[in-house]
Amino acid sequence: PALPHSCHPAPLLRAARRPPRMHPLATEITAGITAGAAKTLAFYPLDTLVTRREVGRPLLVPRETLEGARPAAIRDVYAGSVLATLGMLPYALLFHTAF
Q1: Cross-strand bridge partners of residue 65
Q2: Rounded CA separation 58/18 (Å)
Q3: In the prediction, which pLDDT does 22 show?
Q4: Would you call 67 helix, strand, or coil by DSSP?
Q5: What angle (nearest 5°) sits at the alpha carbon of residue 26, between those of residues 82 and 91?
Q6: How many CA atoms lie within 13 A of 12 on its CB side?
Q7: Quick one: which of 1, 62, 83, 98 is 20 to 30 A from 16 by CA?
Q8: What letter would DSSP give residue 14?
Q9: Are 88 and 37 in contact (CB under 8 A)?
Q10: Burial level of 40, CB count in 10 A (0-12/13-18/19+)?
Q11: CA pair distance 88, 81, nearest whole angstrom
Q12: Phi, psi torsion values for 38, nearest 5 degrees
């Protein structure tokens, strides 16, 4: 037998699935920060390699450590990316919220 309309759980489930609405400005700020951080992290290694090539340094340089020389690693091209991302956040926030 079918449940009476007042006992049916479907309206309650529909209301529970709705995500809370964000203010449009908060949505734009979140999108701007996310897009800017993704762009910076995606292109930072390329910028590092281009800069090294322009100044005449080898692209992947072995590093000296206390234990001796170690081979160059991919993480070496990401060195400094956290600061670059943090420095870019105010620009991305303003750019994406203004447009």
Answers
A1: 68
A2: 54
A3: 78
A4: coil
A5: 40
A6: 5
A7: 1
A8: H
A9: yes
A10: buried
A11: 10
A12: -65, -45
Torsion-angle region of 24 (φ positive above 0: left; ψ -120 to 50: alpha; else: beta): alpha
Token pair in block for residue 11: 């309206």
Question: Residue 36 corresponds to which tokens in the numbers above?
Answer: 């800017």
pTM of the predicted model as reported, rounded to 2 decimal places? 0.61
Report the number of secondary-structure helices (H) and strands (E) in the chain.
Answer: 3, 2
Beta strands of 1-99 (E only): which ranges? Answer: 63-65, 68-70
CB of 44 closer than 8 Å to CB of 81: yes
Contact 97, 29 (CB under 8 A): yes
40 vs 88: CA distance, rounded Å: 8
CA dihedral 37, 24, 17, 10 (to 10 degrees): -160
